[in-house]
Design a protein that fits this description.
It contains eight helices and no strands. It is mainly α and 207 residues long. The chain folds into two domains: 108 residues, no CATH class; 98 residues, no CATH class.
């Protein structure tokens, strides 16, 4: 007795084809793969190795090797905002059964520079870069505003607005940024730390 060979068709003969799990070719959204029950090669055990490998890492692999998907999985693993969803996404994987102390502990500022328009016009390229950074900072502030002092979102918005009007020449840009923020007893981060983060954000965005 031999196993049936899957074949395309109609009616009952092809009914079992519909139950086959999808292969996530070209997919880089870890949440979507889990939610749609697609095939997934569990590489989460490497998170243990990466945490002890050093502070600055570079992934050098060919196209379609899973770099973006792995980075997206890492973002979800360490994101404190997804702490309540940890078992949902990682419960069936190796790292879900052997979590590291760092899981769901960090505020994640993620960039996807494939969204930046590549062109020979330097001004347009930088404008696209600024727009992407502005959008990602907006997502970051919205996701983690409960961890910052009162007024943090408004301060970031004002800085982003100023940056849109900056000239493309670094020498013509403002030399510094200051932001005043009010303190709050119901926050987990002091205004001083918030201002420090704002200065870091400005430096990172103006590279």
């Amino acid at each position: 007795m031999t196993a049936a060979t899957p074949r395309l068709g109609h009616g009952r003969k092809a009914g079992y084809i519909k139950s086959m799990r999808a292969i996530p070719y070209g997919k880089m959204n870890f949440a979507q793969i889990v939610e749609q029950d697609m095939y997934y090669v569990d590489k989460t055990r490497y998170l243990e190795t990466l945490e002890s490998a050093g502070s600055y890492l570079m992934f050098i692999r060919p196209r379609r090797f899973g770099k973006s998907l792995f980075a997206n999985m890492m973002r979800m693993y360490y994101d404190v905002a997804l702490k309540d969803e940890f078992q949902r996404y990682f419960g069936k994987l190796y790292i879900g059964r052997h979590p590291t102390p760092n899981h769901s502990q960090y505020l994640i500022l993620a960039f996807d520079f494939s969204q930046v328009s590549l062109c020979e016009d330097t001004a347009r390229l930088e404008a696209s870069f600024r727009q992407h950074c502005d959008q990602r900072f907006g997502v970051f502030v919205k996701a983690y505003q409960q961890y910052f002092a009162s007024g943090f979102a408004e301060a970031v918005s004002k800085i982003a607005e100023r940056m849109r009007s900056w000239p493309t020449s670094p020498s013509a840009r403002p030399s510094g940024i200051s932001a005043s923020m009010s303190s709050s007893t119901n926050t987990t981060t002091s205004p001083t730390r918030c201002c420090r983060r704002l200065r870091m954000a400005r430096t990172a965005t103006s590279i």
